[in-house]
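Note to self: user wants both folds in one dump. Writing first protein now.
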Amino acid sequence: MTEVATQSKKGETKPKNEKPKAVLRDDYEHPMEIYLRIERFPHIWCATCGIGTVLTAFISGLEKSKLDIEKVTVVSGIGCTGRTAGYLRLDSFHTTHGRAIPFATGLALGNPKLKVVVISGDGDLTAIGGNHFIHAARRNLDLTIICVNNFNYAMTGGQAGPTTPMEAIASTAPYGCYEYPFNLPFLAESSGAVFVARWTALHIRRLTNTIAEALLKPGFSFIEVICPCATLYARRNRLGDGLDLMRFYHDNAIIKHGANTREVDIEYQKQIIVGKFVDIDKPTFLQQRDRFLKNKLGNQFIPYKEPVS
């Protein structure tokens, strides 16, 4: 079988499985190639899926933050969004269902110099992973969480999930969902998050800027990206294709920075409030630990970051 090759410099090819070298951006055909595992493309996402847009916004936000990518780690769980970790040419981990946040917690506490990011879906983070979500926010762990909310369990058949709007059709709710959904920004803020924002897959520039800001924010930052599954959710609920979804976002997204998160619930095919809702400062988990124990132990206190000989 002939090995597939990809373009590196113009007029040159490289084997599919060869890792690109970190050279000047002009040496690549695509400006984001140094951030992506090109050998794993084409990706598995459906045509018009917004997860690719979110991945683009993340890479652009990472560049804008000017963080050292050697010290950035991305963790994901199971689901369509969970595949982002596998496509990024960073230290990345594709974990088990609902366990992205505890895995990320271990990384952040094991090496506090890392910037640890979790990119996963609404089902993974707030259903089976919901307990981990609220306690990571309560502790104000230094994590950046990007939740792609596609309103159902998209990878496994479009079942109703914790964010499915009431009345929406799903494979397990053929007459419409009758369960109350989570208001994710309110859940994050009430659990202790210091930074909370929401955008749609249409708001690429604003999402990019928000990701850059969240990456530089100490503590538990949460960004929700509204991105209904174009294949299952949109089709069942007669929202059309990906372009129709973009029109829906354009016509129905209302920007309200600083909005009360109690009032940003998402109703079935109605207006969606987006913006940056929360941006406060308070000690992170490790800062609070060091401050508390230093007060209790005095000269016997050893800071967390200081190795014990």
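First done. Writing the second protein, which came from a different request thread.
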Amino acid sequence: MQAQLIRRWIVTGSLLLLTLLLPLSCPAEADKAVESLARGTLLVDNTGVHVSVEGPLSKDAEEQADADSYFHIGSNTKAMTATMIAMLVEEGLLDWDTTVSEVWPQAAPSFDEAMRDVTLHALLTHRSGIRAFTAGRDWQSVPERSGDGRQRRIEFSRWLLAQAPAGQRGLYLYSNAGYCVASAMVEELSGNSWEQMLRERLFGPLGMEVQFGWPLDHDSMQPQGYLRSAGVLRPFGRSEGYSLPVEIAPAGDLSMPLGEYAKFLRLHLDGLGGEARLLTEESFAFLHEPVGHYACGWIVLDRDRETEEGVVTQRISSHDGSAGSFYLHTELNPAAGYAVAAVVNAGGDASRGLTESLAADAALDGSDSTK
């Protein structure tokens, strides 16, 4: 198997957080257990939006998931956060090179010397060196925060910037906390919360129905998330005592039906294909321009693809999202004019393998539609 960058959530204390690993093999029995859960695929192409969802809302439920069911998208939230921030950059609230010290000049002397000139763009491309917060133990040293989400993100960011970095600036280090700081920067300058700005600038204009947090937080007739532990799938969510800290919600805490997610993917397909909305073509191109392999909420790689004219190299933007109990895999192929996504309501390697396989099948349908 050829090595490639993927995401996998690991158990660390009471919190599951994202890290990068190499592909692992999946036991056949694990595949069977995950395949019996709720799962769905999405294809966005020149013929429209195609959604397929099947499986029970929970392991023992008779009620079935459908196209209106909400799934947690995990770190695919990052691309939405970056898109909203790009709107504020276009409006002149700040720019990609705005530093944390420019946003918090009075607090800047307390920041670690290596963090004072960290830029917005470095945070969104995981090149700031800031601590990752991809493990539960990362929160053990964090002081108590108070207030609403905006206040807590700003307070947490200012504390975090005073800590020594975890890596060298300019080198890749995946960081959920980096997206918190980037969001807190625009929250500080605008006076509005991340939640409010997403609703007003992205979800509202696109007509998207989105929930903050787990699907079951708002509706009992939604898919139950599962964690595989010791070979057993067990329910895992707020009712089991697990939720993501509001500080890193901008990095991965949204839920929505696949058809709603399609509206966001269509926005980016159109933006990269010469029909930009909400942002300029230049901003869409910038959001998908990688530093190394990572852009603003997207992994961007060149891949060879078979066509009727032979093998061509096309640039693919992709991302995986999981907070432990759901798994979403997404690929955007602007050159071929389609996007695909696949989701299952369980985390882990078996879910990664299943969603990649489902997305690959959907991509074949997308390839056929562009011929």
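Dump finished. Worth passing along: The two ends are 30 Å apart (CA to CA).
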